[in-house]
Amino acid sequence: MTLTTLHANLLTPDGWRRGLLRFDAQIQALDGDPIEQPDPALPIALPGFIDLHVHGGGGADAMEGANAVRTLARLHARHGTTALLATTMTAPTAEVQQALDGVAAAMADGPGDGARVLGVHLEGPWLSPQRLGAQPPDTHAATLAELDDFCARAPLRVVTLAPEERGHLALIPQLVARGLRVQIGHSEASYEQGVAALAAGASGFTHLFNAMSGLHHRAPGLVGAALAHAQHAELIPDGLHVHPGALLAALRAIPRVHAVTDATAAAGMPDGAFRLGRQTVHHCAGGVRLADGTLAGSALTMDRALRHLVGLGLSLADASDRVSRFPADYLGETTRGRLSPGADADLVLLDHHLQLQSVFVAGRELPR
């Protein structure tokens, strides 16, 4: 593979450098002088974005099979996402199985002109029927046999569950033993049940604040458990799902909050009707909703998430960590989410308005 050289402002794990980045499929060398802020005369190179909660994009939904997964991966790559987790919806078991088979088939083909698919975020069917949000009413209690069947079909990386549902608290250590990240979400659990789930091995919260028991000073709920005890949590920084004040409170309380899009098939598409699992959702005025007005995922892309975080007052370096390094670290992906020698050459090049100029996956510039 040909060696590529970029002259840019480079965000490294040790801070900004102005200099040269040389890479083929991996970063081979990084040379330059330390700087406090990016030089406006040069473009900005950041690690590629990593989205751990993606249902769809480009008109395609992950539940529809391999071709849909390839389509959504291409759409999100055009917005700087170089790696993602294809995310399921609650559905009858046979439909979840078919979706997992489709993700596995798409992964076997490699990234092509899209983002790398690192595996699956299983969001449903192990949720609370009281906190469905936009999930269909097809929840049921988890079993070890079902878990093993799902794991045999595709590489599960993250599992969302409601810890208060029958048998789920006892199941968490077995999920963790299989190398899965367990997240608490779509749950009516109390503060105490949330703390117990964290003690059992749960490591994060799915779209914090949304579809979970909220914070009250005498009943802190799952939000209170997260703010008091969590190291990791997802947030959807689209300006609709979470008020800026709540988002800033979470960023202050939880050390390694990472951004996700929770994107649906509507991402990258004009207003209209789209599929989200078994349901029809409507993309209008920047949001995605069910017919009754319930928020149903988003049309967010990670480049917009980065700009939104910076607009809230985060430094570009901090915002970059929350769309790349922190999600990579959360999955244990030590060669992604950073610009350093030996890391995979998954990176984005931006101008000083934080608009994308180029996206590279495994050292290859993708068409835009």
TrEMBL record:
Entry's transmembrane regions: none
Chain sites annotated for binding Zn(2+): 123, 186, 207
Domain Amidohydrolase-related: start-end pairs: 44-361
GO molecular function: metal ion binding; N-acetylglucosamine-6-phosphate deacetylase activity
Record keywords, A-Z: Carbohydrate metabolism, Hydrolase, Metal-binding
Cofactor(s), names only, from the UniProt record: a divalent metal cation
Binding site for substrate: 134, 210-211, 218, 241, 295-297
Signal sequence bounds: none
UniProt name for this protein: N-acetylglucosamine-6-phosphate deacetylase
